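#lab-general

N.A. 3:47 PM
ok so I finally got the sequence cleaned up, no stray characters, all 66 residues accounted for. can someone with queue access submit it? mine expired

B.Y. 3:52 PM
send it over

N.A. 3:53 PM
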Amino acid sequence: MAATRNQSNDMLEGCADCGRETPHSVRLEIRTESQKSENAQFSREPYRVSTCRICGAETALRMNNA
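B.Y. 4:20 PM
back already:
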């Protein structure tokens, strides 16, 4: 998940769908992993979500596993 910058200062990451390094939008999300409503408040985890600005492909990486 190495990121680089191009000449216009955009973040570039490898995109599996495009097959090359492309500009990406990156955000952090707190996602609930449990399907059971009574335990949902205890199953929230941080994820790094990256979206390719060329093709729209999205990848999510659980930050506890990074």
